[in-house]
Amino acid sequence: MGKIAFIAPSPEMLVVGREVIAELGMGEKVETFLGGLQEGVEIARQAEADGFDVIVTRGGTAKLILDSEIKIPLIEIPITIQDLAEALLAAQVITGKSNPKIGVLAFSNMIYSIEVFSKVTDIDLTIYPVCSALDFAKEVHRALSVQTDVIIGGIEINRLAASLGSKTVLLVSGKDSFRTAFLQANSVSYARKIEKERLQKFRVLIDYSVQGIIGIDCEKSVEVFNNAAERLLGCKAVAAVGRNIEEICPSLPVDRTLQSGQAGLGELIEFNGRKLVANIIPITIDAHVTGVMITIEDVGQIVAMEATIRKEIYSKGLTAQYRLSDILGSSAKMTEVKRIAEEYAATDATVLIMGASGTGKEMFAQSIHNASSRRQRPFVAVNCGAIPSSILESELFGHVEGAFTGANRKGKAGFFELAHGGTLFLDEIGEMGKLAQTSLLRVIQERRVMRLGDDKYLPVDVRIIAATNKNLAQLVKDGQFREDLYYRINVLPLELPVLKDRAGDAVSIAEYFITTYNRRFFRSVTLSPEAKEYIRVYDWPGNIRQLRNVMERIVVVAKENVISGELMRSMLDIPEEVIIPRTETVHEDISEKARILRVLAENGYNQKETAKCLGIDRSTLYRKLKALRIEVKKICNT
Question: Is 309 contained in some domain?
């Protein structure tokens, strides 16, 4: 969790700040401190050492912290026109004059709004800028030397002016200013947390890469396994990823690093008769070890790999791995959808993929990219629903140095730039906020982007594929999605069928997953005819994702090699009232159409009883009858 430091220059500001923090429910994220000016600078230095993400403060304290080379992003609580107006009204009250002579003593970062206000009013107001506490006495005396009626400033300035006999008004920020500052700090804190994770992984790879590179998580599961590691350890990456590192190379001493967070450098190990040197480096985020990066090399062989690793890191996540041939299913509906997708791939027009969760929207997006002329260029996937709306525009379009507090010091390319020449996949586009929708529409129309904080456009050549599990047309009617954007992205619609409507696919896909998990878990599980029938009649509300998870669980928990119908019924939570054909009448090659015709005949073509025997509701039966072109009335008349 990100940490925010609120440094209040005065007890009054501390009270207001704590009230606003409580109202926003940010008590666990924000720590409060009391200290103004130079004392505030020392608190900020300690906050930097303690790993705080953002500092919130005001006025002279903010100015001094910014000038002190403290690198934590700082959010300043502003002085608004309303705050200044209230101070001027108070000045009139305490002096009893309708237009008193007012002197405002403020740091340079507070002067702008005051200058604007003074220019548009006829108030007798003079600004006396200060740069440090050393200027306070000089500027107060200067103001009083010209018979100033009242001095407006901070606590220290007012205390000094009052001691010299002047009337004073404290310049304070209202609650709205506090609220705005804390919400902005929260957004910056979240963005910095994401950036910390990326930079930390990148730094580890760059600083310690030699030859073989292996990345594991805190459970010792392999996440990264490069070509050199394949050669040195005699294990293919496809077989290594997802397995425990101790199964692949038990001599690697990773436990000590995972438990203590201490790096193990120059560890001499022996593997299959070869001597290797290993560096074992912890990945630490917010004081917690989240994984380990391991580099290995032959003793005596040192190869510079930094440039190669940079290239791998840059391209990571920008490629599509699936092709249309990888998409399982041979039903008429899936065959038609794949045919349409292949035709879409031959064009550069925008595709909108619609389908329920788990139907394979990203697989189709990657497959269309890999079947297109852009297959050798980047494929960039963005989950619009997973990125907070406050930073989505920065992620999509990038930003320049100093675009906002906490921005990358060298700027950052957005997803559109990264996808230049290739495909940008916008998943869950229905979750995108209205502001981001407007910016996206402009980019689609103009084919160019402007980074946040920049003043020039960059042309981009990007093919857009969007996906959603929502009814965008209904969202347009409800005012939640821009109509013009909807028509811009809905050029080539592709609707993916749910698994229950893909006749015959469920069993064949289940068998594929069973084979896959048999290899992974060293099992030899098969499905009985009864188990296949339960798979065939089940509705699969979670689609392919649910089917895959159930098959994995079956392989793991099965005590027998042949999965019984009873175990499958239990796994799918199918009620015992649901009747399926007896074991001896089940044939593995029976078609769905033939099965429905048979059950119809057995029940005298009573559709209610037929649906009950098939374990589906009547609406599902009607849909299947229509899809399979079964005319019940004609059958009854024969």
Answer: no
Count Cα neighbours of 347 within 13 Å in the Cβ-side half-sphere. Answer: 11
- Sort strands 102-107 and 150-153 into parallel, antiparallel or unpaired: parallel
Q: Is residue 500 part of a domain?
A: no
Summarised one tens digit per residue, pLDDT across range 135-177 is: 888 888 888 888 888 988 877 888 888 888 888 888 778 888 8
Integer Cα distance of 225 and 217 in angstroms: 12
CA distance 436 to 422: 21
User: What is the DSSP track for 360-404?
Assistant: -HHHHHHHHHHTSTTTTS-EEEEETTTS-HHHHHHHHHEE-TTSS
- Contact, 494 vs 381, CB < 8 A? no
Domain span holding position 348: 324-495
**Amino acid, single-letter form, for residue 547:** L
Annotate 566-582 with DSSP letters as a single string.
HHHHHHHT--TT-----
The residue written with tokens 């059950």 in the block is: 599
Judge whether 237 lies within some domain: yes
13 and 58, same domain (yes or no): yes
Q: The domain spanning residue 400 has which CATH number?
A: 3.40.50.300
Is the pTM above the cut of 0.85? no
Q: Are residues 378 and 240 in the same domain?
A: no
SS3 294: strand
Q: Are 330 and 505 in contact (CB under 8 A)?
A: yes
Residue 424 and residue 421: Cα distance in Å, rounded? 10
Residues facing 168 on adjacent strands: 151
Same domain assignment for residues 73 and 89: no
Claim to verify: residue 342 and residue 444 sit in the same structural domain: yes
3-state secondary structure of 55: strand
Q: Which two tokens stand for residue 576?
A: 């015992």
Residues lower than pLDDT 70 in the chain: 1-2, 108-113, 115-122, 199-211, 299-317, 389-390, 401-411, 576-591, 633-638
User: Is residue 19 included in any domain, yes or no?
Assistant: yes
Tell me if residue 298 falls in helix, strand or coil.
Answer: strand
d(CA 619, CA 616) in angstroms, rounded, equals 8
Distance (Å, whole) CA 530 – CA 548: 19
Could you tell me if 333 and 423 lie in one domain?
A: yes
pLDDT in tens, 437-452: 888 888 888 888 888 7
Total tally of structural domains belonging to the chain: 5
What whole-number distance in Å separates Cα of residue 518 and Cα of residue 96? 89
Tokens of 188: 């910056």
